Structure formats: structure tokens, C-alpha cells
Amino acid sequence: MKARLFLVPSILLALLCMSTAVSDATILIKKDLSQLAAEAELIVIAKVGNQSARYAKGTRVIFTYTDLTIERVLKGSSDKTMTVAEVGGKVGDITLHVESMPKFREGERVLLFIKKDTLGQQRVHGAIQGKFRVVHNFATHEDLVLFDKGLRYVTNNFFATKGDKSPTQVSLSEFQAKVLELVKKSPKKTAKKGGKK
Amino acid sequence: MKTLIALLCLGLIAPVFAAPNGGPKGEAKPLAHVIGLQQSGANIGPARFVGSTVTFVYNDAVNNLPAIPNVEAGSLVQSACTTAAQQWENVSAISFTDGGTVATQDSANDGINLVTFINSATNNAIVGSALAVSLVFFNGSLEIVDADIIFNSATSYTTLATTTRFDIQGVATHEFGHTFGLNHSAVASATMFPTTSAGATDARGISVDDVAGINGVYQTIPNFWSTGIVTGTITQSGSNVYGAHVVARSVVDGTIGAAAMSLPDGTYSISGLAPGPYQIYVEPLDGPVADSNIQSSFFTTGKNTTFQTTFLGGNATPTTIRVQAATVTANVDVSLAATAQTVNLVQIGDFPAGTGSFSVSASGFEKAPGDTTFVVVVGPSVDTFADNQFSMVGQGITFGPASTGSGTIGSNGFKIFPLTVASNAEPGPRDIVYDNGSEMAIYCGVIEITPNPAPSATSFTFGAGSAGTAGTPALSAVGSPTINNASFALNVSNGVNGETAFFYGAGQPDFLDLGNGVLQWVSIPKDDLFPAAGFNATISSGMATLPFPIPNLPSIAGFRIYLQAGLSDPGMAGGVSSTNCLVLIFQ
Ligand SMILES: [Zn+2]
User: For residues B256 and B430, is the Cβ–Cβ distance under 8 A?
Assistant: First the structure.
């Protein structure tokens, strides 16, 4: 026999909220902003420069290497310029395509969460989840961070204060402040145990 | 008007039994995806395996599970993956071979199509934050020269349906879909939908929604001849709209027939549509499928998501279009207002108990005919919306009408609605719709009704009739279309006494506007021309009944016919009124 039309006792409704984080992973392992902030070794605002593709050293896998000019570092340290690698790209006649990897366009301004991969290359952390486009609103002279409407879970719980429960853009200053706050809150690595007294 | 009557009466019932051309549903209901268009130089198209034949091999750790400790002991990895690939082989021109195991550990452009679970620097660098990835190396002619699938060695996997682990077969089906040339789908019950959940096994078999996508890449002749294509251009204020999700929904049963994404020039092409009547709607890729989920060497980000869900013909009275086999229905253009969507449905939960705790996710789920459950619908402010603004589309579905609970989850609200799936519910993905009269949000294909493994004879109706002097005539079944039911009959109501009802039928639905409000819902091929004698009945007391004994032919089990009646009616312009369509499914 199938159950039918049981009313949900309202007391239970409060409990329901707690159970909802269980599933809803994605083909990408979901990262929200606090996880990105905690796990990234480097968080930068940068301008995208040249791109070139080659087989990564010691592999037969094509990566595209994108030069970045760093405007601001929110976590970690970086030179004025750096290069991020992304799997995929074209070498000679051969193109490699991999789903859900971030892509860059020359001239684009971005805010990136970066972490070294197991080949020692700097990579956007969380694939497409760790790349944000930054644009300038010429009307308001404000820099804005654009959210992908399909990846609302990354930002949803961090910018829900202004009436709009899931904004698709916020000002760069608000976004930076939130990232810095999350970096501060994130658990420190234990690697430096026993360093200073 | 005699000519109109004649046109309506061209159909024939008897030959349909002898030569059914619509098979049991499920095999003839292909649906579409975003085909993973790639670009190399001037060539644009899906990357394909040469000759459609493809051999994958497995790193030998699949038979030595201690070497891949993220996989649950007892899992049958190789057979799960091969079964996954065979799902695609079974519905397309692809010929898949399980090439056995090899010692090769790392993904590489080495001419070896490899499935690997190995924890290595190269594999880990590629897979990064994904559960699994597929790599496709293709040449300037868009021929795949190497394809690999890497499962993340840090993710817990199983083939044993353990709820805390990800299902290898489901993930493999998705990844093989990528290697065979498909991009992500915004149909939430599709295997190519970009999210999945731990413990979910729904993606193991490909959804009917995945079939047309693969057939769009590896065309099979039967698929081409049995299905139709809809093309058009999506515009907004005169500009082409890139990245709109264009969906064809069947008027027959409300299932999603197929979907596609508009290209940078605003054009779209929905292929693999079973013939029949459809409505077309356009929705923004505003989640759960992301702009950045659909990228390739051809597809860029920056898709237009600033518009509201819009039906061809308008949301209040959508236009019905006709799709015919081996035919392109062209110029199905939709122009969008530049108004951003403000309502959105982003997650769904299957909550059979209806009490206690539930979980929700972005991807849809399956329900079988006869199932009852509670559906948790999640989205911004959903808890504050009126119950009667929510619906689930199509035949055989009882959804709501009242919610049984509501609340908030993080920044979203939710409502819980009862759902009953009738035992005769037609298989296929169904939409959940929020419509407040000024704006609509559609959770595209979020619940997929699976085929009934033990179907019984049934009938259902769809489509509008045209008003006559005595009201709008209705065609209904008297009894059940069970094989050898000698007393089965067809009944027409709301006719004009003394006038005649003409019955006609075909093996496929169709759509033609015959003027004066008369819509033809059945496909009447020329080969089926038949004198109307014997398929008409005189109307008395507003009714006409046609005895329609079901022959004792076991071979017609599972086949269906589409029936309609035209009624002479001198009081109407055109001299005729017409009924809805009645679908009979024999068992
Ligand atoms: Zn995918």
C-alpha cells in the first residue's frame, strides 16, 4: 500500500531544512564561496592576457596556459604576472575538450580562486565554480562581479541580505569584503605547527 | 461544407490494426540535447568517432579493487561501465566494444580510449573538482582520435547502490555521453543533466530524453525517417538570442518531446521529435543548468539569460505546431521581451513518506506509473507563492492542488505537493510549472515517468474539439480497448440530432488547422484512404455510438491508435464541428 496525503506536521518542517544539504552534489564537486575561500591558496583579481596551449610536461594531455596581470591579491602572494593552466585546448591539428572547465578570453577581468594541481600548475579551484567575471558599469562607475545564474549555490548564502535572495551580481567591493571575511574565518592550515612561540 | 467533411473522414480505422506504424511508446519517443558542437578551423559540428565504432579499455585496477580504495569492495566496475556505454549503443548507430583491461594508468592522447580510476598526478590534475571527467581529443576534421574517462580517486564510488556513494554506472553513462558527442542538457531528468547525487541510480539507464541527442550526432536512418525536426530563430529586440533553451512539449501527453539550445546566431534545431502536435517554449539557462556548464571549442559563455520563459504564441494561449516524420517544420521563431526572469525553480525533492525529513537536489527523478509521492519544489520565495500557481504537466498526473507543507531552505523557499502518477501515465519527462499569470517558471522535464512494465489496455484524450450548435462535441471510449473486447465502442456527445458523426483514426497524432476552429489531431496517411461507410453513426439525443470491437489479435498489444470524429452541423460555418482526440492503447 502506498502512503497518501499525510500532512507534514509543522514541527517537522523545521527539521527538514537540516537534511537538505545531504545530496545535491554535482558532476562537479560543489564548492560554495566559503569553501573556495578556505581551499584556494591564492585569490586574485586579474586581467586576462595571452593564451597558449601545449602538452603539459610529462603528459600527453593538452593544457591551455593563460597569462594574468594581477591587480589585487586577496589571499596568498603573487608576482605582478602569473599563468594559470586549464585542461583542454588546441595543439597543431588536435583539440582537447573537457566539460565544465573554465575558459578565458583575452582582455577579460576576472576574480579567481587558485590552487596548485598535482602537476604543480596553478589552476582555477573548483573548475567553473572558481572563476568570476568582473565588469565595469559605466553608468554607476562601479565594478561588478557577475554570478553565473546556474551556479547560484556558490554565492547564494553570502549575499542574501539586500532583499534579493539570490542576486546575480554584486559590487566588487562587497564581494571582496565577503571573500576577505571568509578567508579570515577559514581554518588555518596546520602545517606551521610549532613555528613561533 | 462537404469538402471539409470529406477531409475529416479520410481516415480509416481497420488498416491501423494491420499495419501499426507507431510502436509501443518508449522506443519511438526520442528527445534531444545540446549536441556538443566543437570547432576546429572552419569546421563546426559534434566531434565523432570515425565510422561510429569505438573501443574503450579499462585500467586493470577495475579488477583489483584494493588498488582503487575509493571504490566499494564488491563493486563490478568494468561491467557497470560497459553497461553504461551500451545504453548509448542500444539507441544509436554507435557500436561499442569493451576492449578489456590494460596496464595504462593515465589519461593521454595515445590512441587508447581509457577508463581509469587511478590516483596519479596527471589524472588528479585533470579531474580536479569534478566527480569524473571525459576527455575528447579530436582532429581538424572533428574526428575523435582519443577519448578517456577519469573517475576522481578522491570520490567514494560504488556499483552497489550504496546511498552515501556515487553510482559508477550513472556517472559513466553521463561521461560516455560526453565522449559520444553530447553536451549538457537542461532537461532535469536527463542523464546529461550536469548534476547528480550520491546514491542516485536514476542516471544508469539513459532517459528517453537522451536518445535524440545521440541520434543527432550519430544519425540512424530509421530515426531520421520516423522523426521530425523543428527549426527557427530566437530574437530579442531584433537581436539574435544565444543560449536560449528551446523546448518542444507534446500536446498529446505533456511529455517533453525534445529540446535544444539556440546558437550564437539565434537559430535552433530540435531534432528527433516523434510526429504529432507540439508547443514550443523558450526559457533562460538561469539554473540549475549554468551558462558555464555548456562550453566547448565552439560554445562560449555570455549566453543571454535576460528574458522570461515564453511560449510560442504567448503564455496564455500557446500556438500548436505540427511535426511530421522526415520533415523540417521551419521558421518557428520566437521573439522575447527584454525582461529578466524573477521567479525560478531550482531544486526538487522526491519525498515518498511525506513526513519526516527529505532531501532535495537540482536534478530530477523518476516515478513509475501507479506511484504516489510528495514533491518538494524549491526556489526563491516559493514558500510565499499560492498553491494554485503550481502544476505538473500532462496526462495521467494528479499534482496538488493543495500543498501539504512549506518552509525555507537557506535562501530558498519550498512547498510540498502530493503527486499521484496514474497507472496509464505516458512515459517521458514532465515539467513542473509555476505560473502567476504574469510570469512563468518551468522546471523542464524534472520528473520522468518511466514506462509501465505491465501496461494494461487504456485510453485517454487530448486536444480541443470545435464548438457546434449543441456545444463542443466530445469523443470518449465505452469500455476498455482490451484485445478481443467485442463490446468496445466509441461515443460522441454534444451532437445535433439527426446529423451524422464520422469517425476516423490513424497510428500517429497530427495537427492541422482546418479553419472555422476545426483542428485535426490524427495523422491520416493517403495509404489509409477508406470509404467512410461503416465508420459513421447518426446522432440522436445528442449522442452517436459506434461499435468498435477490438479484434482478437495478440500482435496489436502495445499499439495505439488516435481517433477523432467530425460531426455534420448545418448551423456552423463550414457545416461541421469536431471532437477532441481519443487515444486507445491495446493490451
Ligand atoms: Zn557532464
Answer: yes
Domain membership of residue A152 (yes or no) is yes
Residue where the block lists cell 521573439: B335
Residue of B nearest to A152 (CA): B287
Whether residue B345 lies within 8 A of chain A, CB to CB, comes out as no
Residue A125, in any domain of the structure:
yes
Tell me whether residues A17 and B408 touch, CB distance under 8 A.
yes
- Model ipTM over 0.90: no
3-state secondary structure of B536: strand
Q: What does the pLDDT look like over B228-245, one tens digit per residue? A: 899 999 999 999 999 899
- Cell readout for A189 is 592550515
Query: pLDDT tens, A118-164?
Result: 999 999 998 889 999 999 888 888 999 988 877 877 887 788 655 56
> Please, what sign has the CA dihedral across residues B274, B277, B283, B288?
negative
How far, in Å, CA of A88 to CA of B502, rounded? 63
Q: Give the one of B122, B293, B409 whose C-beta lies nearest to A150's C-beta.
A: B293
Within 166-195 of B, beta carbons closer than 8 Å to A belong to 166, 171, 174, 178, 183-184, 194-195
Q: How far apart are the C-alpha atoms of A108 and A45, rounded to whole Å?
A: 11
Domain that holds residue A177: 19-185
Domain membership of residue A1 (yes or no) is no
Helices B168-179 and B208-217: angle between axes, nearest 10 degrees: 30
Cβ–Cβ gap B135/A28 under 8 Å: no
Contact check, Cβ <8 Å, B291/A121: no
Q: What pTM was computed for the model? A: 0.81
Is A3 contained in some domain? Answer: no
How many domains in chain A? Answer: 1
